User: Fold this.
Amino acid sequence: MTSDERDGPGVTASASDSPESASASDAVSDDELLVRAAHDASAFEPLVRRHAPALHGYFARRAPGAADDLLAEAWLQAYTARRGFDAARGPARAWLFGVARNVLSAHWRRSCRQRPGPAGDGRDDPWEAVDERLDAAAVAPRLRALLAELPPDERELLLLVAWEQLTPGEAAAVVGIPAGTARSRLHRARRRLRADAPLKLTGDPA
Assistant:
């Protein structure tokens, strides 16, 4: 294992820390940076700069009290798994959100082991934390109830698009379903919300 692999992103100093290198990396796409990062750890640092705010927001909306720790864990896991990125399966942003989703699910499972209830009852779905966030944002109770009734993957698709501003295709890659399936589920969920809810879910309600 190299020193770069031990230290993880943003720990070792490199030429990429200079303003000139940072400016040059701004012109490189996320996908290309992640591909380069498989063999050049410094290429991972621009990805952290670009996506840390969005990933922190993802965690803050779902697990507010643990967002900082979960973000650090997500970057560590993404760095460790960077060689497994395959652009043919989806863009880098979707891949990073997929890592974040796995980190969140693991956090939720750990938390729920301490709660009563049988295993396999859907307790790895972090809806409760999201519901609390919606409640704090004073979202209409009917909208909250409708979101709670959606299947977990369908609800996650909707929130990824509405809150995280992912495209339907990117959200599909995060959840791990075909893009056409994601669009169909999003259409169904949006139609139901438009028909039954007094508010539109078009961004972070907070």
About this structure: The first helix runs from residue 3 to 7. The mean pLDDT is 79. DSSP finds eleven helices and no strands in the chain. Residues 16 and 22 are 6 Å apart (CA to CA).
